[in-house]
Amino acid sequence: MKFARSVRIEPGARAVRTVCPFGCGIICGIIAHEKDGKVVKVEPGDYKDTSHICVRGLSSPRLAYHPDRLKYPMKRKGQRGEGKWERISWDEAMDMAASRLKGIGEKYGTPSLAFVSAGVGGLTNYSTVGFAGACQGTFIMPAGFGDSAGPCADTVCYGAPLWFGEDYTNRFDNPGLCVLWGNNASVTEPFKWRRIRKAKENGARVVVIDPRFTTTASRADQYISIRPGTDVALALGMMNVILEKRLHDRAFLSDHTSAPLLVRNDTGQYLREKDVIPEGSDKHMVWDTIENQPVVHDARGTTPALSGDFKVKEIGCRPAFELLTGLIQQYTPEKVSKITEIPEDVIINLATDYGTIKPSASYRGMGGTRGNLHGDVNFRAINTLAALTGNISFEGHYTFELNPLGFFELGMPQFVTLLQMYEAILNDEPFAIRSLWLMRHNMINQDPDFNRMTKDILPKLEFIAVTDLFMTTTAQYADLVLPACTFFETTDIGAPIGNGSHEYIQLQQKVIEPMYESRPDIEIYTMLAEKMGFDAFLDKSAEDCIEMLLDSDHPTMEGVTLDNLKKGPVAPGTCEMPVFNTPSGRLEFYTENLKAFGQELPGYIEPVESQRTPQAEKYPLLFSTTHSKFRLHSMYANVDWIRELDPEPVLKINPVDAASRNIKDGDSVRVFNDRGEVVIKAKLHNKVRAGLVNTSQGWSPDHFISGTHQALSHATINPAQAAVFEPNAAFSDTLVEVERVEEG
Known about the structure:
By secondary structure, the chain is of the alpha/beta class.
């Protein structure tokens, strides 16, 4: 392979261009150096737009050669979680798995066989979904473990579930103002941060809104400390100032948003042509101020009203913007200051800048959606703020479509969201789930409500199989554990899923042969399919599967071939497509489908667990778990290089809160609520707001003095999110109390 830059290769070694494919979604191009069948070094890739490597990527060979790696299949001997295992062969493992799956499927119906995968992209995920379909079973959609609230918002606003904050509000070449909402981009999103840093070098102001003073906040021109979960109120307060100062973009609102669309007073639904004309279409209606009559929204030569009260065939209607204006007027800077605990002048000045500096970019972080039960409304409000001022970019967006149909030759599975899986296991709703196959998803460690999971949910599962690199928290509760390959040991393709990343599809080239008795995902499913009696499921090589995926009729995939990917990253092409894929073809800030939940507009909703709710009398502190640059969820927590930099979990607590509880730096403290507890060392930290305590997520129970942080979280389902996309786990919408643990 020829490299785009000079790559220093030591004698006797070879350099392989591959990718780090893990679930942060960035998909960084890297170069792995192999010598004598072993990965000896990794470095950033040679292609400038995809090249990056973080401390985790640099440490990835330590994963491959970790002494604790799972080396061969094992079946449980003692009770679940007891830690007693028996080594078995792959043939025995597949016989056991096939027998258990067949028996459970016959007893409860095939939808009772559930499968979930997480952590990597490309064909490995498709193989899990495909095998679930071959079984006529159920695939558990994993985004709800904290990543689905943002896509919920974008589904209703834009018509597509955009991922991880990469959207129409920030794709500007040279913004004059960059506002980061709960987004620690300099730590978690390197490609996005490069764009922000470049904008700053060109004169842009950078403002960070966050309850914590993060690394990114330290590099900003202004840091605004906000009460957790109140981003919606701030966005509405900014809109109030913008309307008051007439800084809104009427032309953009009229041409590209739902602002002029008429909404029925009686039902809260958009008025359609068929409501007016018996043979009419589903097209939305607006009020033409020139002809003084209703017309379809895409009629030429009209000037639609943005305000007013109209009657169409005795149906009272108002433009959606009139309804939005009514909401915005309720959120004066004075009121918003009380909700957010941000000074009025700060709100007014930020709103004025956002409305006058063009373009102004909004960078939405997952902190804003993991933060509370209604995290989707945060993103909807930020989208609406951008639309109000015309700070929406139509440039720089890309899309592509792979062809996964070959994985579904034997059928499509049922789909259940992660949080709904709890109900399917506990209460057989919408149907019973009795077996769970987990492909690199450390569910017990990473998903909410640890005690409910281990005490109530797992005992109802008759079979649990885990494929992973290590004996994770989840694997400890399994009946069958199978050794997975690292990305160095498999061939795949990687494509970014957001995060302000690059726009390239890349080949993940195998660097070394699978170690020990580990097997690639596809090979595992092929072996199991044979034992299950399926005909030729995934009876293809890895490269055959890649070519199948790339063999798409989508115009963006023209030229994206395996041969070209072997030469280097390939950018998908462009194609004509709707700007917004909503029913109206416009950015919709008014969502008629959420009228039933009282959330048709992005109004402020107090977090379900906050210091202003009754629970705060018993549990006065808000507990958050944030991402760390030292882990990818629970991965790398056992890597020695990483632990030298981040040796143990700590609870960051404001000195004011610590003093009132007689807590000193380094003390062991008990963090608890009605759901559970964790004992952890305290670290006094004046950059965490008073009333908020924080630890980084991804630590396992054996890393804490006792307990686990996930014992504090809850799995409450937001029905509005469930109606749109996937309900989201609200990890930071959690109240606790903290007390010092007396020594001895």
